[in-house]
Structures are given as structure tokens and as C-alpha cells.
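quick one, 172 residues, struct below
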Amino acid sequence: MKKKIHFLILISIVLTLGGCEQKLTYIGQSRIVERSENKKPKWVKRPPKKDKHYVYFVGDILSPTPTDRLAYKVALSKVSHFINAKATTKFQSKEAYKNKGESAQLLVNNYIRVVSKASIKHAEEKGHYWEKIETLNDKKGVDTHYHVYVMVGVPKKMILEAEKKLAVQKDD
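---
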């Protein structure tokens, strides 16, 4: 009797452990098969609030390799957008006040001219994380890719300098 109970317990453990792996059953279904860390960092979903010295941005990208170069560039583009959005808002309100009669097209043209002039210096990678993901494709095969995240910290001082530089360029 004890042998039967031990045998049943052993079978139930084996079946339970065997069922832990998520199986891909429909086209487009994905699963994470590997991670760079045991637990996804909190900053992946929400970057830390700015602190005394830095403002933080997260870039992410789907890639065939776990390289963080492109995710870093995405984070830098978010920094640029942040700087330009703040500077453009200040610029647009100044222009609208100075030239009430001019069309909105002038503001759009000035914005397009200025957007490409922001430069980001001293951005530091503060963290990176990746997940290897398998997705069932329509040929009953599995596609593998990585979701790569990079957190970048930019010194507040550099952001203020870039905003000032944009403001000067916009006045020209």
C-alpha cells in the first residue's frame, strides 16, 4: 500500500513538473524562454522619477539579437523628443504672442527646422534588460527574437543646456 502511495506521489510530481512549461498552441502566441535577470526590473515599465542629478528614459526594441545598441538609440530619441517638446512649447507660445496674425504654418516650419538641431551629450546607460521570446508562426515553426530594454540617465544640467541652445537657435 505504501509503495502505491509513493508511486502515485511520484507520478503526480512528474506530471506537475512536466506541465510547467508553457506550450505554444496558436499562431502568434509568444512565451518568454530566457531573461537576462530572474525578475523584470521595475524601470522597464516606469523609469525612475528624476532625481537631483538625472532625468531617466527607457528605450526598447525587438531584435534578433540581445544587443542593446538600438534600444539605446531609442532612449536617446526619447530624450531628444523630451527636450524638443519642452523647447518647442516655449517657442510656440513666444511666436504666437509676437506674431498673432501669422499662420500656424510658420510655427510648424520652425519646429521642423529646430527638431534636428538638439544634441544629447553625456547620456549614461543606467541599466539594461532583455527577454528571449519565442512566437509560433504559421508554418508550425517558432520565431525567436529578443525584447531589449535600456535605461538611460541624462544629467539635468545637459538637458537645460540643450534647451537653452534650442531657444537660441529658434530666435535666429
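The beta strands are 30-35, 54-63, 124-136, 142-155.
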